[in-house]
Design brief:
Blueprint lengths: L3 H15 L7 H11 L1 H20 L6 E7 L12 E9 L5 H67 L5 H36 L22 H11 L1 H22 L6 E9 L4 E9 L9 H66 L5 H35 L16
Antiparallel strand pairs: 1-2, 2-3, 3-4
């Protein structure tokens, strides 16, 4: 008889052939997610919004068109006896204000671009994790299907042997119990696959029912970077760090801008017209200055100082968190790699060898049917546990790659440097 793993492999090949036309692999899933994810579209729109705000901040206020009539007689004459003037007035921002406004807008755009990259990294990480989870669930469903088929076949054989008197009734009961357990586990595997597909679909911008069979294999080897070099590279390039650097620079510029707020923006006006009573052409020049008696931007200056402090403290906290996550993921990768290696090189071969020995011994009369059922279930449970360990390994690998900015689809904006 064929060992269980040979039967399972044949079943997996058959299922793969049947769904080859509708499979989805990881690179295609990542590209689809970046192109279609609604949250990523929303983040792109935020960049457009702050870009528009930055453009608007550089624009001078519009001039005012003015008309005035002075010394107009009330009883007679009207406009024909008054001083009639028409002209324009323009408010001129105090020197330096618009330049700072432009710099603040540029920093806001830069921060939004880095925020977008951080969200894209999170999306890529989430897609990888959910894809691996769905792929593991798909593999486990294949194993559960094979186990259910073998349990059903075994129950049929035992039933015939009991009817012929070649086996006791207890063997039939045990075989039927094993069949029912296999059916229950098959249902659980189907539910696990459906749930993982429903979690993956929104990340791709799809409806849950539109997720097809997945193609690919779970990685069996941990790819651990050099920890010190990876930490330095991560802190130098991670979008979250650069977004906070841009936010801190923006807050410092806003503080400088708030200090200029009390300085007045003068309004200059020029007008021309006629003094009809004197029958003369006249011109007027006007200058007005707001007096900073009450509003001296005290609150804005205080807010800007606090925002700079917030960005500085958030930057330190983020760097500590990223370093901690990197160390934790490195240890998790190490442990998961060892567990997967143990299953692949020792536990799985032993389980398959035990099943072969029991089958051979059963044919020679050394073992009973219960021994075969127990060994068969143990071998299947080992395979299912192996997929769980592979999922742990691949999940940690996906999270590590997100920290190290792998599979980033968008170009990096101009980097912020620490002062």
């Amino acid at each position: 008889m064929k060992p269980i793993f040979a039967v399972l492999a044949a079943g997996c090949v058959a299922i793969a052939d049947a769904s080859a036309q509708t499979t989805l692999d990881l690179p295609a899933a990542l590209a689809e997610a970046v192109a279609n994810n609604p949250e990523l579209h929303s983040t792109r729109a935020r960049i457009e919004a702050v870009t528009g705000r930055a453009i608007q901040s550089r624009v001078w206020p519009n001039p005012s068109l003015e008309f005035s009539a002075e010394d107009m007689p009330v009883s007679r004459g009207g406009f024909s006896q008054s001083k009639n003037l028409g002209g324009v007035a323009q408010t001129v921002p105090f020197p330096g204000k618009k330049a700072l406004d432009a710099q603040i807008g540029a920093k806001e755009v830069t921060a939004a671009e880095w925020d977008y990259l951080a969200r894209e990294l999170e999306l890529v990480r989430d897609v990888k994790v959910m894809f691996c989870r769905a792929l593991a669930a798909q593999k486990k469903l294949e194993v559960a299907s094979m186990l259910a088929d073998m349990a059903r076949s075994t129950a049929g054989v035992v039933r015939k042997r009991v009817e012929l008197g070649a086996a006791p009734d207890q063997e039939q009961l045990r075989a039927e119990i094993e069949q029912e357990r296999a059916v229950v586990e098959l249902t659980a595997a189907q539910r696990e696959l459906a749930e993982s597909q429903k979690s993956l679909a929104p990340l791709l911008g799809r409806r849950p029912e539109n997720i097809s069979a997945l193609a690919g294999e779970l990685s069996e080897h941990a790819q651990r970077p050099d920890l010190d070099q990876a930490r330095d590279r991560m802190l130098a390039r991670h979008p979250s760090v650069h977004a906070l650097l841009a936010s801190r620079a923006k807050a410092e510029l806003e503080l400088r801008r708030a200090k200029l707020d009390p300085l007045p923006d003068p309004t200059f006006g020029i007008a021309a017209g006629r003094d009809n009573a004197a029958d003369a052409t006249i011109m007027e020049f006007r200058v007005s200055l707001p007096l900073p008696l009450f509003d001296r931007a005290q609150g804005r200056q205080r807010e800007a100082r606090a925002q700079a402090d917030i960005a500085r403290y958030d930057l330190g906290a983020t760097e500590l968190r990223l370093s901690r996550d990197l160390a934790v993921l490195d240890e998790r990768l190490r442990a998961a790699g060892r567990q997967v290696e143990s299953y692949r090189t020792r536990i799985l071969p032993k389980a398959e060898g035990a099943l072969r020995l029991v089958r051979t011994g059963y044919e020679a009369g050394k073992f009973g049917l219960l021994d075969i059922l127990d060994t068969q279930r143990t071998a299947t449970e080992v395979r299912l546990a192996y997929y769980d360990k592979l999922l742990e390994l691949n999940t940690a690998q996906a999270q590590m790659e997100a920290l190290l900015m792998k599979d980033l689809r968008s170009p990096l904006p101009q980097k912020e440097t620490k002062p």
